[in-house]
Amino acid sequence: MEIPGSTIKREVWIAAGCFIAAFLVNVVAIIGYKGNWTEAFTQIGYVIVLSIIIYVLVNIIRLLVWLILSTVRRIRKPR
What we know:
single chain, mainly alpha, 3 helices, elongated, 79 residues, 82% helix
């Protein structure tokens, strides 16, 4: 069983969005605490960990939405 290219592409875009969101959180923290801008690159490990956490949370939300929608469709389905 192969994973379709469109699914892989969608997941890569979602993961990239999570990384960008985590990087922006880091930038806001640097600005808020008046830190050194080298921290944007030296703290990349924390950014990667945060992006993985965001990715997992996004997928939990996606799973919950899918479960709710499939349940609603099953209930509305005429018999």
